[in-house]
Automatic annotation (TrEMBL):
Organismal lineage: Bacteria, Pseudomonadati, Bacteroidota, Flavobacteriia, Flavobacteriales
Entry's cofactor comment: Binds 1 [4Fe-4S] cluster.
Catalytic reaction equation(s): Hydrolyzes free adenine bases from 7,8-dihydro-8-oxoguanine:adenine mismatched double-stranded DNA, leaving an apurinic site
EC category name: hydrolase
Organism: Flavobacterium cheongpyeongense
SUPFAM superfamilies registered for this protein in UniProt: DNA-glycosylase, Nudix
UniProt function note: Adenine glycosylase active on G-A mispairs. MutY also corrects error-prone DNA synthesis past GO lesions which are due to the oxidatively damaged form of guanine: 7,8-dihydro-8-oxoguanine (8-oxo-dGTP).
Record protein name field: Adenine DNA glycosylase
Amino acid sequence: MDFHNTLINWYLQNKRDLPWRNTVNPYHIWLSEIMLQQTRVAQGMPYFLSFTQEFPTVRDLANADEEKVLKLWQGLGYYSRARNLHKTAQYVANDLNGLFPTTYNDLLKLKGVGEYTAAAIASFSYNEAVSVVDGNVFRVLSRYFDIESDIALPATKKEFTALAQELMPKDNPAIFNQAIMEFGAIQCVPKNPDCSLCVFNGSCLALKKKKVAVLPVKLKKLKVTNRFFNYLVLEDAEGKTLIQKRTSKGIWHNLYEFPLLETDKIEGFDFVFKAVQEGILSSQTIIAFEEYPEATIIHKLSHQHLHIQFWKIKVNDVLVNGLNFNDLKLFPFPIAIYNFIEKEEISR
């Protein structure tokens, strides 16, 4: 078919040189695919290189301490990916003797591996004829064939998967999957693609009908929750501070943070001081209390907007389990808190 021939020829001439494309090692391909979920290649590349250097094999990753894995992942976001990565590495190393499953259906059984990731590993490592469908593929196919189905619906995923499967040359599924994803990533981009240079500009229906800007269709809107975090940056008589691990399920699970006062809205000095004095620090003598005004931020996650304020609190007593501020960077933190620590360390 002209579509896949044109696409593959474009790919061979324009593909980026990425380390996970120069191997069929399922461990490296799995690592890259997990890291690139919700993450741009430019952002994910340093993490991939760090992980493969620190953990050359799946057994090395399996034997690592979770905190070390989270620390290396710090800043990449969606930390459940890192926790699932670690657990899956342990399962592969200990239960599967270090060998990844070799089929799409068996790969789906791994924790944190969905249909897209399983298809990517199966086709790239084992050349199984199974199509990958991600945001890039939705965009390319919806524009080329003028498909207005809502990509937020499960039925649409099946529709696009079937279409991609039909278009795929069964003798070389890996290169087709790589090509269509790469085409969506660097040519058929979400906004203002340069259609004048596109190899499909003579056959793309969206271009002919002037619908490039409105495809693909995604009607479901993500509900965003606002949360209000007040972080208490303590300093005791020895200059030490306190941190704690987030053990509850939800965002930033098993990462570290300063003691937290979560409120229903942005609160000012009087409210926070009273709440801290009567609650979290009721047994301490507070000798200074002030906000870090320049550190107030809004940290946007996919489903939550976190309104974060930091409060500087000096206490007269010695904190149990207190840490030197310079030692904090050894622990895995959410990037919003880590950035604050870096700035505060410079100003000290």
